[in-house]
Amino acid sequence: MVTRTETRDLEPVLAATRGTELLGRGRWIRRTYSLDDIALVPAASTLDPEDVETSWQIGPYTFALPFVASAMDSVVDARMARLLWSLGGLAVMNLEGLNTRYADPADPLAEIAAAPADQVVAVMQRLYRAPVDAALVAERIREVKRDGAMCAVSMTPAATERLASLAEEAGADLILVQSTVMNEGHRSARGRTVSLRSLTSRLRIPVMAGNCVGYEAATGLLEAGAVAIFVGVGPGAACTSRRVLGIGVPQATAICDVAAARDDYQRRAGRYVPIVADGGIAVGGDVARAIACGADAVMLGSALARAEEAPGRGFHWGMATPHSALPRGTRIRVGTSGTLRQILLGPAAVDDGSHNLAEALRTAMGMCGASTIRDMHAAELVIAPQLGIEGKAAQLSQKVGQGR
After folding, report:
1. Beta carbons of 168 and 203 less than 8 angstroms apart
2. Which of 373, 378, 380 is nearest to 67 (CA)?
3. Which of 151, 212, 239, 368 is catalytic?
4. pTM for the whole structure
5. 127 and 172 share a domain?
6. Domain limits at 9?
7. From the candidates 31, 202, 271, 333, which is the catalytic residue?
8. Which of 305, 303, 301 is nearest to 283 (CA)?
9. Is 333 a catalytic site residue?
10. Shared-domain flag, residues 167 and 292
11. Is residue 239 annotated as a catalytic residue, yes or no?
12. What are the tens digits of pLDDT across the range 75-110?
C-alpha cells in the first residue's frame, strides 16, 4: 500500500510521465490516438451548414475546398488535376511517376491494373525503372495549366536538385518535397544531405514539405520556410511502412502534435502555416475529425482513386510501392464508385460516407458551431473508439452503411 507521504514523493515522477503509461520497468511510453479513436462533440450553439466557410490558404493561394489529391499515379494525372481545380480543390502530380517516364502512360497503367497480385511489385519495379524525362516534366506541367488550373508537383528529397528547377522553369505554382519521413535535420556520412532551407531560399515558388508526425520535426520544417506541412507516416490505404519499418504515429495524435508546433511557430514568427493531414482519410467523418485535430486540409488517395476519372482504373498504389529495394506499399483494388464531383460535392450514390465529402464537412462544422476551418480547430473532441459500431449491429451484419 502506498501512503500519502510516498505519493507526494512520487509527484515529480508522475508529473514527468503525465499522459504516458509504463510499458515495462523503466520504460514509459505515450498513449496515442487514431482518428477512429475520437469523436466530435456537438456544440451548444450550432450553425446552418450553408453558412459554413470551407476555404483555406497556402501562401498567396486560396482554395474553396480543403481537399488535396495525393501525388500518386493511381490518383493524379493532368486531366484529374484540371478537374479537381475546377471543383475547388488542389491536385499534386508526382514528377517521379509514370507520367514523366512515358510519353503515353496508358499502357503501363493498364499493365499494373492487369498484373496478378503475386507479380505486381515486380511489374511496377520494371515499369518505374524507365528514367524521368525532363521534357515530359515540362510537358505535364503545361498540360495541367492548360485551362488555367494551378499546378502543384511532388518530388522526393533526392530528386530536388534536378527536378525543382525544372518545375519552376516550366511554370509550376507549388512544389511539395515529400518522402516517408521528412525533416530538416537529415544526416549522412556519405555527404548526401537535402536542405529545405536552402531550397526555399533559392526558389521563387512556394515549397511545401512532408511527411512528419512530431512537434520537433514540424518545427524544423516551419523554420526552414515551408509554406505547408503534410502530416502522416503510414496511415494510407496502400501503404505498408508501418509493417515493413515499424514506424508511425496514429493520425489524431500526429496532427495535434504538428498543430501545436504550427501554433507555437505562429506566435513566435507571426506566420500561419497550414497543415495537411495525409493518409487514413476515406469518409466525411475522417475529414471532420482531422480538421478538428488541427489540420487545415486533407490529402486524399484511395478516396479519389475510386473516381471514374482517376487514372488507376479501379486500383490504387503508393509512391513507395515500386521501390527497387524495399517496397513500402501495395496495390489495392478500390473499385469505381462514382465521379469525382460525386465524391467531393455529391449527390451521394452510396451510404458509407465516401461521397459528398464537402457537405459532410460542412454539416459537421455546423454541428460543432464552427464557421471556418480555423474555428473547427477548437471543436470539442472525446476519446470514443467504439463510436462507429455502437448500436450498429444490423449494419455490421448486413454490411451496409457503417458496416461496409
Report:
1. yes
2. 373
3. 239
4. 0.91
5. yes
6. 4-31
7. 333
8. 303
9. yes
10. yes
11. yes
12. 999 999 999 999 999 999 999 999 999 999 999 999
